[in-house]
């Protein structure tokens, strides 16, 4: 394998496409030498954006893909029908090993479905989970699964725990990451049917550092490095995290603007406050990888701006250089 | 029925029992004329606290209950065995119609189990859900179910929606409350098996104002008055709400204290900020009623202080005066 990482980027996906996506790609190649980007999408539109920037022309290539898959389309059907869409063309580049990774801010459903249908699962992986990093008072935690497999089974959750553990250890550099399962009480006998089934299986895993249940209240305090849950619950956690954070900051802003005295105070606090809240900004951490595929597929926020797109692309470098997929493969083999 | 409402209060339950519970009871009778409180628990301990306060002696009665159910006990077993516990004695007062309502900050499991076993369900109610109010940018929303019935069925969720709707209309005075189901996407075809089954049933209900799915991201913005979900998901939402709110405020405080300039600013902002954030304080809204029982059972936070206990007791007045249970009964009868 070459030393440089090639990332296929869906130039047409997301609320701010193509401008912010293309800008993010340019920022990524400007910041990191070992990266090449292949932008997929309408080539005329992409070229019109690219001429705005100065960058190493050899490291951004455009591959024409005239079709676009929207959020309103049924994912599997869209992947099958729109062979010339920016998502399908990019995923095929990963499949054919012409790209190491794929980043998209487009339809989550289409990225998940396409990842599985086109790139395919690593042998032994039952369900590839979507695993974003969420900010905590301690740093970050990996939330796995946050939306790929609703109504998952206990055996799936066990694999999520293992893959998440490998990710946190190798991409984030956390030794022996703490793994916990989301539950509605701390005791082993608490929970719904799925959690009750999964808990003893996780407890029996010698290759992860399972610390037991985590209540949702403890998640923002960074109680665990890998937070395992079924996709419906994970999606609720991720979205509430984003929504509540934004709502509270909104509320605080209006509080700061409510009196003349507080307005003056706000002026003095603003820089320090901004700096602190940056740590709690999910977009800082790039996109969510779909773990367990034969290649790296990263879903970034639909409303991602250039910085988040850049971060999502750069994240692919660590993932690929650390051979996460080889480690997952090796690990599942050892456990057979 | 007499005009005055009698509320049995578990004096021994919660992290701050008995001091804060008893203080809360005293505050409640001081603030509201039409209320009587029966404190259940160790009478010597309770009397020792009560002598600290000046209040209408006829409106706080003590009923001796020497046993205490802890959070670590298996709920159903504890309810069956500890007949002289503060929870069982209080619930029996409700069962025997000597009290209209019961408030406890003690073991959630024991309150839920005891409510069902001793007070019993209203005829026609399949599962009584726990329904707290959560703060939003718009006011409050009722989250139903937040922990009583994990692995519920679609028919249960439909009843949650109806009971929640009656509660919001009559206790909060919101005409034609908007009802939504927690989902991982806005479209009808999204969701897990339970949501997919429940959605068309809710859509077919002519007696509620069903507005469709709500994503967790929208909950803090007050997108719906009644938020329906299965208990595991509801519990995650409630606890993440509390945990993330506290963590963010913690983060903001440390940001405000990080520089000399920001410290000065913080001093100026503090009163306005405090006032604004009060609206987002869950404890302001008292406890969570267990809907659908033959009497009112209210679970308040384990860490409740006197103000929250007082609010939880006062909340029983509206509930009882508005004849919520009669309305639920009437409603379910009409729907048979």
TrEMBL record, chains A, B:
It catalyses: a fatty acyl-[ACP] + phosphate = an acyl phosphate + holo-[ACP]. It is an enzyme of class 2 (transferase). GO terms for cellular component: cytoplasm. Pathway: Lipid metabolism; phospholipid metabolism. Its EC number is 2.3.1.274. This is Phosphate acyltransferase. GO terms for biological process: fatty acid biosynthetic process; phospholipid biosynthetic process. GO terms for molecular function: phosphate:acyl-[acyl carrier protein] acyltransferase activity. Homodimer. Probably interacts with PlsY. It is found in: Cytoplasm. Belongs to the PlsX family. It comes from Variimorphobacter saccharofermentans. Signal peptide: none annotated.
